[in-house]
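name: query_chain
kind: protein
chains: 1
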Amino acid sequence: MKAMILAAGRGERMRPLTDRLPKALLEAGGRPLIGHLIERLARAGHTELVVNVSHLGGMIEQALGDGSRYGARIVYSREAQPLETGGGIAYALPLLGDAPFLVVNSDIYCDFDFARLAAPAALLAPGAGLAHLVLVDNPPHHPAGDFVLAGGKVSAAGAAHLTFSGIGVYAPALFAGITPGARCQLAALLVPAMARGLVTGEHHRGLWMDIGTPARLEALERALSARSSR
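structure:
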């Protein structure tokens, strides 16, 4: 299964760090955030990668190259201006192919086993669904959560909301109505699909961090330093 890493965003909440460096290349534990993800994806067998780039995208391409140092093959989807999550994925469809694919945000750190997603991807392939999302417990900065998981299905309404981790598997058909190059949020596509019962999910209870601000980047650095000193 091919995988896409979303790395085109401006990283406004990370400024001024992202004025000189794309968010995906900010380092923790001596490695860029996107490097941690690529290593975990490759270990799980996802070695065919698409990375979308825009803001300071040339720096990402120079840093990652063709992916061979990670045991992967990377191709780039270049956006003149960031197309947001849904628009960026839709724009990259020619590189992703006709089968369900994995997408992960570049600004997270987790211990999720990406190999687990092969089974739900296989269920999406016959057209039985449009997406499978990985949800996590609500972090302190997002206490209201995003979606509800019940009976393996994800919905936008109900009690006991969980937070979308930024990890999901998608059928290309989810993006069929998006004009290539149009801006679109992923949630705008997912919520109608949820209403039709076409989105499944799972609850990851392990390590997961959204590295969206300098303070959270510092927290990850402290956690990785503590781990390496044990």
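note: The longest helix spans residues 214-228.
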